[in-house]
TrEMBL record:
Residues 116-290 form the Mur ligase central domain. Residues 312-425 form the Mur ligase C-terminal domain. The gene is murD. It comes from Virgibacillus oceani. This is UDP-N-acetylmuramoylalanine--D-glutamate ligase. One of its GO terms (molecular function) is UDP-N-acetylmuramoylalanine-D-glutamate ligase activity.
Length: 449
């Protein structure tokens, strides 16, 4: 078991259990630190309460009394708990440091950390980076906001093994000395303002990813995002820009034909499976992070010719009889479907529909120019039919559900067509989740002959 080093606290409050809080509490207890756990929602008879109590923790559940702060030197908080929480607000008044579990993970890692953040594209970039390193025979593990608790992974990490971390603004707010060897800043858009209260606070949290870096570290950043460019201007790390529009002598870039790292051609764009300009940005960022961490061009090529995307997010499913099938079931709103439609230049058969929330779909009109046919289902199929007809789409058909829509779309298709599920609606009229809807699309595609 790995030990926390240079950790000056002996009495720690873990605020909020869930996965990260539980992992943090166990780690601290294993390092002989006095741990008090406070959680509002967990029942006192819960299995984890009994386990932590047996390990030596003092566990208080059901409320957040200020008495939990007595003798506390440090708070490790669940990232989702807002700083307006009475315990946190009082701790701030008393000058008690407040961190998230990511800070503990950073303390445990002996080798390189690659930290990835941004308002959009974090998960895709994290997965790409990790896979590029794996295919290059570099030992690596993923963790963080992607769903695996960082401290749990950090404790299993070999001395030569790298860790690729997806990092949210919530996690990054709570760091003191955490420092990735390679930091990636994809973009910064307005998000989570209910939590951060202002765009400036949100931006500051995102920029914490490079605040502790030195000139021996690297910062991969989006050279086409003015907010990002301004934010990194005073960074101490070696800056490595990426751009989908312009040559970058000291970074990662793409022209119409290929992608490059500095002046080195990595591969032809036509060989990349993942579609969409937003995904090209994610690809360039991942190439930068991976190359700086030891990835080979062969390893990168192998990933980019096979990686089909995060499941249900413009996911490449299959090429069958020269038709390309894409699952974008996570597109539960108009903006997401706009991005999906923009990703294809070839003739597209569009599958859409779902829960009727009362909105119209005219905002999709400018993005339907490559759609040759629409197969529509669910509560919104009549509304979507009106938009499809306004757009001059020649063939518009109704379907009972996604399974029926896939079969009809295939019958309407020709070689080199794209068959795209991008519903622009939530799934709840016919399916429990967008995942269930996407899985039905995938299953049906695989039954086609």
């Amino acid at each position: 078991m790995k030990k926390l080093t240079n950790f000056p606290y002996s009495h720690v409050l873990v605020l909020g259990l869930a996965k990260s809080g539980t992992a943090a509490a166990k780690l601290l207890l294993q390092n002989n630190i006095h741990v008090r756990v406070n959680d509002m929602k967990t029942d006192e008879n819960d299995k984890i309460v009994k386990e932590l109590t047996t390990m030596g923790a003092e566990v208080i559940v059901g409320s957040h009394p200020l008495s939990v702060l007595e003798s506390i030197e440090l708070i490790v908080k669940n990232p989702g708990i807002p700083y307006e929480n009475p315990v946190l607000a009082e701790a701030a008044k008393r000058g008690v440091p407040i961190i998230t579990e990511i800070e503990l993970a950073g303390n445990l890692v002996e080798s390189s950390i690659i930290g990835i953040t941004g308002s959009n594209g974090k998960t895709t970039t994290t997965m790409l980076t990790a896979e590029m390193l794996k295919r290059s025979e570099q030992p690596v593990k993923m963790a963080g906001n992607i769903g695996t608790v960082a401290t749990e992974v950090a404790q299993t990490l070999g001395s030569d093994e790298k860790m690729v971390l997806e990092l949210s603004s919530f996690q990054l707010m709570g760091i003191q000395q955490f420092k990735p060897k390679v930091a990636v800043l994809l973009n910064i858009f307005e998000a989570h303002l209910d939590y951060h209260k202002s765009f400036e606070n949100y931006k500051e949290a995102k920029c914490n990813i490079f605040k502790n870096q030195t000139n021996h570290d690297y910062l991969v950043y989006n050279a086409e995002e003015p907010v990002v460019v301004e934010a990194v201007a005073n960074a101490k790390a070696a800056r490595v820009p990426f751009s989908v529009k312009r040559r970058q002598e000291h970074g990662v870039w793409a022209d119409e034909e290929s992608i490059y790292f500095k002046n080195e051609k990595i591969m032809a764009r036509q060989d990349i499976v993942l579609v969409g300009e937003h995904n090209l940005e994610n690809i360039l960022a991942a190439v930068g992070a991976a190359k700086l961490s030891g990835a080979t061009n062969d390893g990168i090529y192998e990933v980019l010719t096979t990686f089909s995307g995060v499941k249900h997010r413009l996911q490449y499913v299959e090429k069958m009889n020269d038709r390309l099938f894409y699952n974008d079931s996570k597109a539960t709103n108009i903006l997401a479907t706009q991005k999906a439609l923009q990703s294809f230049k070839q003739p597209t058969i569009w599958l859409a529909g779902g829960l009727d929330r009362g909105n119209g779909f005219d905002d999709l009109l400018p993005h339907l120019e490559n759609v040759k046919a629409a197969v529509l289902f669910g509560q919104t199929k009549e509304k979507l039919k009106e938009v499809a007809e306004k757009a001059g789409i020649e063939t518009v058909e109704a379907a009972e559900n996604v399974e029926d829509a896939v079969k009809k779309a295939y019958q309407l298709s020709n070689p080199n067509d794209v068959i795209l599920l991008s519903p622009a609606c939530a799934s709840w009229d016919q399916y429990r989740t967008f995942e269930e809807r996407g899985d039905m699309f995938i299953q049906t595609v695989h039954t086609l002959v």
